Structures are given as C-alpha cells and as structure tokens.
Amino acid sequence: MRIEDIRVHLMVLPWREQPAFQRGYARERNVLAVEIETRSGHIGLGYQLYLREGFRTVKECLEETMVPHLIGRDASEVEAIWRELWTASLADGRGGAPVLALSAIDVALWDIVGQAAGMPLHRLWGHYRAEAPAYGSGVWRGLEPDAMVEKALRFKAEGYPAVKMQVGHAWTDAQDLEHVRRVREAVGPEIDIMVDVNMAWTADHAILQGRKLEQYGIYWLEEPVVPDDFAGYFRIADALDLRVVGGESHMTRYDLKPFFENPKLPILQPDVVRGGLTDLRKTAAIADTWGMAIAPHLYPELMIQLMASIPNGLILEDMGLMQDLFTDPPLVENGIVRAPETPGHGLAFTEEAMKEGRVA
Question: Are residues 304 and 332 in contact, defined by beta-carbon separation less than 8 angstroms?
C-alpha cells in the first residue's frame, strides 16, 4: 500500500452536449486527473471538471505542495493524509486550489482502499441502499426560452422525477419568471422543478423574486446569494414558503458550520471537489444530526457511492457532463442510479479520453 508514484494529467475534450451556463459559453471540457499508484500495483483515480479557469493552477499546487507529502506513505492513511494536507494549507487560504488539490488526492486514496479491500466504497463505508434518484440538471440560462422548455421535456421523457433550471445573470426578473412558468406548464405538476440562482441576487432581491416563484410550486431555490452571506440565507429562508438550499461553493464542513448552527436550510449540496470524500462523509453525518438532507453537487457517477452509504441522501444531480469519458460508469436509467459493485469507486477514463484529451 506504499505510494510509489503520483501522476497529474490535464485533459481538454469536446463536450458531448455543449452546456449553456451563460449565453455564448464556448469553453471546452477541462478535466484534471490524479493517479496514485502503490507498490502493489493499485492505481487510484481522483478527478475534477473545471467549468472556468483553474485546472493548471491546481496541477501546480498538487505538484509543488501536495505530492512531496505523499511519496512513501501508506495509501490507507486517508484520514492522516487529509489532516496533514489541510493543516499545511491553513496559512494560505483554507480554500481555493489547495482544497481542490487535496480533494482530488482524497478521492484517489479512497479508490485505492476500496480496491485493496475488494469492496465498492459504499459497502466499505457501510451500505445503506442500492440505488438513488437523480434529477435532470441542464435547463440552462444560456438557452433560448423554447430550448429551455424542450430540454425540460426531454428530461421528463427520460424518466427524471425532477428538473433544474437556472435564473439570474442573463435575463430580467420578468423573463426569468416567464421561463419558469413555461417550464412548469410544459412538464406538468408531477415533475419537481428546482431553480438555481448561482449567487446572482441579494437577500432582498431573492425574497421579492422568491415570493413570485412560489406560485409555480418550486421544489427549492438554490444559492440565491453569495456563499459568505449566511445572514442573507437565513433571512430568505425565514421569508419564503419554499426550500432554500446551498452549499456547493463552500469549502469543507468548516465553511458550512453556520448552516449547522442555524439549520434553516433543509438540504445541503456539498461538492466533493471542495473537501474530498473524507470531508463529504463528515458533512453528511453532521447534517443528519440536524435533520438536514444531502443532495450532492454534480459528479453523479461518483456521488452514488456517498448516497448509497448514508441515510440522509436525497437526490443526485445529473448534467451529463462526464459519463461518456469513463469506461463503465453507473448511468441514470429512468431517473435512478444503481450503486456499482466494482471495488473502489470503479471509475476509469477511457483510453481514448486519456490519449486524445491529454495536454499535460
């Protein structure tokens, strides 16, 4: 189990379906992969998708500040390694590239531990269920209104029990409301609709707009304000008769602490790239203590391992952003993802992706 080699790869690949996070969004798919190899031949994979700049920065952070701590260590020392790398970054930000780098390493280490044990991670951690629901996420604000409706109807036809659409940033308030109205009318009352603001509003704005959205039976209002505006989150939650959720942009459970101290958000959406699997499991346990559910941000092919091992997992997010890059990933079928039984997390990039996409 001694770590013998660590390889960091950058890949630039075309999208299977070009996302429209904003009008004119034309970035290619940027993926960072970390391979950790042990003397016994186990190779653990950690990976991250970058929707903005940053994966070259994280690669430099990994190679300069993280890898030197790891060569020769026992890969099963996951908790000790997490703590050491986290502590090493305390003086330099407690977020950003160091946490992204730490998270990629953490995923790869857990992959090795699962492989060595001959168990998928959800069984290694304590299996809770064999499958989890997923919602179709991708009714993007960069689409034209007719295309938003078309995308929502496609998700419904594919069996998703819920869809997520974006508001803010690109359209006026009146246009956003009209888009939500049209999607609700198209999918009918039996499909849940999540609305993602992506931090576009102030608390006052969110309360005013949220009250107008309530008439459309919105399942949740996501990230209405910037991550550090905890007081704003709580004001919005108190004022609206719909669920206010967030957490994807917060770094580790420490950043989420105010949500635990004031459990007004019924659902948290932690992201595995902002703390790794080690921190994600702790976040889920703390949330369960306060009666909060977990709906992890993106990476459904990996997050099924978490969802299958915790009692308070609610639903997975599927944007269809990466599944085509893996050899045999768990896929959404009729709105459901089944937990795989492959040791570790069971994910491996295809030879084509590694060969054609690799840039460094």
Answer: no
> Is residue 142 a contact partner of residue 179, using CB atoms and an 8 Å limit?
no
Q: What is the pLDDT of residues 41-69, one digit of tens each?
A: 999 999 999 999 999 999 999 999 999 98
Do the beta carbons of residue 62 and residue 101 sit within 8 Å? yes
Q: Is residue 216 within 8 Å of residue 179, measured between CB atoms?
A: no
- How many residues does this entry show for the chain? 360
Q: Is the pLDDT of residue 169 over 90?
A: yes
pLDDT of residue 199: 98
User: Is residue 216 pLDDT above 90, yes or no?
Assistant: yes
Domains in the chain: ranges and CATH: 3-118+351-357 (3.30.390.10), 123-338 (3.20.20.120)
pLDDT at 178 over 80: yes
* Torsion from C-alpha of 345, 350, 355, 356, nearest 10 degrees: -120
- Dihedral (C-alpha) 156, 301, 273, 130: value to the nearest 10 degrees? 100
* Structure confidence at residue 334 as a pLDDT band (50, 70, 90): very high
Predicted TM-score (pTM) above 0.90: yes
Nearest to 302 by CA among 149, 111, 160, 172: 111
- Token couple for 216: 């459309």
Alpha helices (H) in the chain, listed in sequence order: 55-61, 78-88, 97-117, 121-124, 145-157, 173-187, 203-213, 230-239, 252-255, 257-261, 276-289, 300-307, 351-357
Residue 357: the pLDDT is 87
